[in-house]
Amino acid sequence: METTKVAFVGVGDISGIYLENLTKLFKQIEVVGLCDLIREKAERAQERYGIPKIYDTMYDAFADEEVDIILNLTRPYEHFEVTKAALEAGKHVYSEKPLGASKEEGEQLVALAKEKGLCIGGAPDTFLGASIQTCRKLIDEGFIGEPVGFTASMICRGHESWHPSPEFYYKFGGGPMLDMGPYYITALINLLGRVKAVTSVARSAFKQRVITSQPLAGTIVDVDVPTYVTGILEMDSGAVGTLFTTFDVVYNEQARFEVYGSEGTLIVPDPNFFGNKIYLLRPESGEYLEMPLLFDYKENSRGLGLADMAAALKNNRPIRANMEQTFHVLDVMTAFERSSDKQAREEITSPFTRQAPMEKPKVLGIFER
């Protein structure tokens, strides 16, 4: 079987599930090398997953003629420099979310990729999983009638109580919108299409945070980004809804996502996951009924977007998690702060077109085209 060869830049917390899936589930991907600033992380992953190479620097990975795609798993504020350097070296890139830490960074990366004739794919890829793909089918086939609105929220008290190194969540490129917003906005635009405008208020309820998790318990972190972000989104379709993300609130349920139509309401599961329960309310039943998941990839299938990108490049078809999508998501997320700063509605200028829905594979993990 012909494979697409991938090199990791960054072997941190998220790399484990990528390595697990790319070496065991997605057979058309071959991980040929790893690079991390802390070499021991790469060495441990190499030993566990049998990866052939460790690169001393990311530039060594970029120079490896065997590598087709660079997988950028660095911290959010590092995404821009790593992706830019990989593109300049002539490599396609698949990046963890977000594409960049600002709209300007995203614009530069998209322009560079187009100039070089290269592709950027990007997380999150949860929208390709069973839950969101089933929700899309239900909406597209009229189960809620004409979509008229939605509400979505990600509510928690922050990551300093459990994450081993949470400081970056409160620095440039962090915050609840850039951290968790990609899941919600990516799902939203795949369900309802392009965002037209954002009107928002964004602030920080706490100017400092105290880390209580090990090994940095007791460390005080200055908060440099908004941590309470709420706003109204207008869609090209005419649907209007709200999105709220925060690290400032004590709450017993993190995720809420509902889409309202002229003939029903759809409860969309947490878009951070691939295969949770979906509920549909229609007047005929008068109650929420659980809907069956109609697509594959119900388990944690991170790497699915990269596998789709590899297949798309081989077969000369559109990439589902493409750079138009990841840039539109970045444009929308950063529009919340732009709108709040100027206390006015922010028009979204970036284009977005939904790609084809997922197809049911004959063999899980194999893309036939």
**Which radius of gyration do the C-alpha atoms yield?**
20 Å
Count of helical regions: 9
N- to C-terminal distance: 13 Å
How does the overall form come out from the CA principal axes? globular
* Low-confidence runs: none
What structural category characterises the helix and strand content? alpha/beta
Strand tally = 17
CATH superfamily of the largest domain, called what?
A: Dihydrodipicolinate Reductase, domain 2
Write the layout of secondary structure elements.
Layout: E1 4-9, H1 15-24, E2 29-35, H2 39-49, E3 53-54, H3 58-63, E4 69-72, H4 79-88, E5 92-95, H5 103-116, E6 120-122, H6 130-140, E7 147-155, H7 175-192, E8 195-203, E9 208-210, E10 220-222, E11 228-235, E12 240-246, E13 255-261, E14 265-267, E15 278-281, E16 288-291, H8 304-315, H9 323-342, E17 346-347
Parallel strand pairs: 1-2, 1-4, 2-3, 4-5, 5-6, 7-12
Antiparallel strand pairs: 7-13, 8-11, 8-17, 9-10, 11-12, 13-14, 14-15, 15-16
Helix pairs in contact: 4-5, 5-9, 6-7, 7-9
Describe the protein:
The chain is of the alpha/beta class. The chain has 2 domains: 4-122, Rossmann fold (3-Layer(aba) Sandwich); 126-291, 2-Layer Sandwich (Dihydrodipicolinate Reductase, domain 2). It is built from 9 helices and 17 strands. Strand 4, helix 4 and strand 5 form a beta-alpha-beta unit. Helix 4 runs parallel beside helix 5 (103-116). The mean pLDDT is 97.
